[in-house]
Amino acid sequence: MNNILRRLDLNLLVTLDVLLAEQNVTRAAERLYFSQPSVSVHLAKLRDIFGDPLLLPGPRGMRPTARAESLRAPLREALASLERAVAPEEAFDPATAEHTWRIAATDYTESTVLLPALSGLRAAAPRTRIAVLEINPPRLTKQAENGEVDLAFHITSPDDAHFHQQALFSESYVLVGRKDHPRLKRRPALAQFCALEHVIVSPDGGGFAGPTDAALAALGLKRRVVLSVPHFLFVRNVLATTDLVSIQPSRLAKDWPEMRVVAPPLDVPGYEMSMLWPERVHRDPAHRWLRETIAQAV
């Protein structure tokens, strides 16, 4: 079979398919927009390749041999599959789509990116599904290449240059504590801020320093970080029930009405949040619709 495939080309297979359907060289030539001699040449090549006459003269045109009859159905099916594979992409219709999208996010981006877009996504594409996975930056490239992740939300970084990316928003930091926190009735002075007990979110686990600590170190100062947790949701519960405070992203803190939010007493550099996706889905109409819908919602 490998020898046969090396000698065949697509035009020969298309000619054979039409000849088997028409069983007439003249009609086959008309359908193929070939000259009759060209179809005859193709038929001669096919006979040589398959070692079979394939079509024999008959009373009303030509009749297929047993070998040709055995080829008819699988050849038609194979050509139909190839036609579907190379056909122009159809426009994406979210109302009828049944896609499953796999999105990597932190609990922060679940709240600030995915949640604002979710109702619109569900209303426009009710038959689709979304699987939210906990983002793992060291494995993100491999997950995206393997099809485990279609889209991710992550702080804009030069390290993500191998992804396509779109900036969603710029984020700043605020100081957060419980509503009746005795030290947050007004913006604390820098010395008071450093004396407070802080909780920090460490996505990598166990870290006790972040952008705030780098900004303080540039001033020769240090704060008291007494608790390190991996998720923002737990921080909210900790702040509500203790006198601990935390530097938090402003987009997240604005949805915590039970908290007191004040400006920190020093400038803590913010960051840009981006949407990342791999090359394999870059031109896919469904994925393009997903990205546009999320970006508009945010």
Automatic annotation (TrEMBL):
One Gene Ontology MF term: DNA binding
Keyword Cell cycle among record annotations: no
Pfam families, per the entry: HTH_1 (PF00126), LysR_substrate (PF03466)
Domain HTH lysR-type: from-to ranges: 8-65
Keywords: DNA-binding, Plasmid, Transcription, Transcription regulation
UniProt KW DNA-binding keyword: yes
Residue ranges of the TM segments: none
Superkingdom of origin organism: Bacteria
Family per similarity comment: Belongs to the LysR transcriptional regulatory family.
Name of this protein: Transcriptional regulator LysR family
The organism of origin for this protein: Caballeronia insecticola
